[in-house]
Amino acid sequence: MSCGEDHNVDCSEILERVYVFIDNELEDATTDEIRQHLEECAPCLDQYDIERCVKKLVHRSCGDEHAPDALRQRILLRLTEIRIETSTTTIISTD
Ligand SMILES: [Zn+2]
Ligand SMILES: [Zn+2]
Question: Which of 30, 51, 53, 93 could make an SS bond with 26 (beta carbons 3.0 to 4.6 A apart)?
Fold first, then answer.
């Protein structure tokens, strides 16, 4: 996936690391890199928000970040539905 813009770090690389970023398990330098990328790259930010929402919802539902896969899938599905409903004004890049 790419938004067509020229970034220091490739989008695919950011999306690979974003899970670790959410868990705050990255070194500061890398965290800055990702944060900067998310600020200038809407598609990646979008992806990041979804993951963050899932984590938050899972945490609230279970009080435990290690939720059952089924619950996580259900929340993800729901978030995707919400996204489709609200993304009519979003420009989706085709690669
Ligand atoms: Zn990106
Ligand atoms: Zn981008």
Answer: 30
pLDDT digits (tens, 9 = 90+) for 49-95: 888 877 877 777 666 656 667 777 776 777 677 666 665 545 555 56
Q: Identify residues whose C-beta is under 5 A from ligand 1, the ion.
A: 11, 41, 44
- Residue 35 forms part of a structural domain: yes
How far, in Å, is the centroid of ligand 1 from the Cα of 63?
31
Q: What's the confidence (pLDDT) of residue 83?
A: 65
Distance 8 CA to ligand 2 centre (A): 10
- Domain extent, residue 53, equals 11-86
Per DSSP, helices labelled H in 2-68 are 11-22, 28-40, 42-62
User: Which ligand lies nearest to the CA atom of residue 11 in the structure?
Assistant: 1
